Amino acid sequence: MNGGSLPIYQDWWHYDVINGVQQALTPPETRVTKAVRESLGICPFPLPEPRSYPCLPTLWESPTNERIVFSSGHVEGEINTWLANVDGSNALYLDTFPGSPGNVMWSSDDEWLLIGLHVGVDGSNLYYLVKSDGSFVKSLEEITNTSHFRVQGPKPQFSPDGQKLAFVGTEAICKQMPCEDLDIEDEYNLYILDLDTFESQLISSRFGLFQWTNEGNGLYVLDGSANTAGHSVNYSFSGMQLADFYYIDLTRETPREEKLLGDIPLYLPYLGAWSYSPEAEAMAGMFDLDGRGPMFSILSLK
Predict the structure, then answer these.
(1) SS3 content of the chain, % helix, strand, coil (to 5)
(2) Which phi and psi angles does 39 have, rounded to 5°?
(3) How far apart, in whole angstroms, are the C-alpha atoms of residue 225 and residue 188?
(4) What is the rounded (10 degree) CA torsion for 288, 157, 145, 94?
(5) With b meaning 16 or more CB within 10 Å and e meaning fewer, what string describes 218-228?
(6) Is the peptide bond before 154 cis (omega within 30 degrees of 0)?
(7) Which residues does 154 contact at the CB level (< 8 Å), separation at least 6?
(8) pLDDT in tens, the chain (302 residues)
(9) Cα separations (Å) of 14 from 21, 25, 32?
(10) CA dihedral defined by 223, 226, 227, 228, rounded to 10 degrees?
(11) Using CA atoms, how far apart are residues 34 and 45, in angstroms rounded to an integer?
């Protein structure tokens, strides 16, 4: 987890959607000790007295193995991305990664990392697919011939088995701002990349937040819940955006879409807070369900 957003410094809650009960949870603790942080040049928390090197709060721990990704305060320069074990051993410098990590995701089989690089446009990242042993580093754009340079909201996601990667992109490459001649949002689609063959498939023209099913045989998409950097959002009313909720069945040769619910009110500044529970048939996120503005809400689809 990243810097000041380490789980131990957050409040964690469990919400029972079916019974309407909420319970405070003990935050998970970081496995990276203060001594290891100091040896690698990662900010210890809480912050100590000023040190002789820059203190960079950039650290991500794998949820399934003993590896971490971090930037070190001992290193000067634009390229500053490392892999190591949680005890600080086997540190590997990713000298082919073009900067410092903005965010990191692991595949469940521990074979792959997806490392985001902030590119100076609000909410925009370039993503790099990285082998967990550091032997492969290549941009998602280069692998798939699509661009996600200006996407705000939906991040790429590994499938539950770690064999595929779902992502939003466009084949209408536009890497320079502004792009007055291109209605960029209409050009974005949802793709799936096979991590064995590196072949990608366009599965839907829906543009928004998405998540895999637990079994990995489909995707839920909140169409209309995203936009692109530098482009105005077409708000429906009172600053709200109306989104439609779809299920995409991936068990068929040609994916099939099913609309589950329409006209869901949400505020785009809160794009990161969204999830769907098939078991409870409920959606959790920052919605405006009663006209009082964006609040953490649970929307039942029953």
Answers:
(1) 10, 40, 50
(2) -70, -30
(3) 13
(4) 120
(5) bbbbbbbbbbb
(6) no
(7) 168, 207, 208, 209, 210, 225, 226, 271
(8) 333 345 666 788 888 877 888 899 988 788 888 889 888 988 765 555 555 555 656 888 888 889 999 988 888 777 889 999 999 999 999 989 988 888 899 999 999 999 988 876 556 778 999 998 899 999 999 999 988 777 777 889 999 999 999 999 888 765 454 454 444 556 789 999 999 999 999 999 998 889 999 999 999 999 988 776 654 444 443 456 788 999 999 999 899 999 999 988 776 555 556 889 888 888 888 776 677 777 788 888 87
(9) 8, 7, 25
(10) -120
(11) 8
DSSP state of 39: H
H-run or E-run covering 34: helix 34-40
Chain position carrying tokens 């005890």:
87
Residues 103/155, Cβ–Cβ less than 8 Å: yes
Place of tokens 């990995």: 216
Q: Which amino acid is at 68?
A: I
Least Cα distance to 62 among 94, 107, 100 occurs for: 107
What are the C-alpha distances in Å from 301 to residues 262, 264, 282? Answer: 11, 11, 6
Q: Which residues, including other chains, have CB under 8 Å from residue 278's CB and lie 6 or more apart?
A: 213, 214, 220
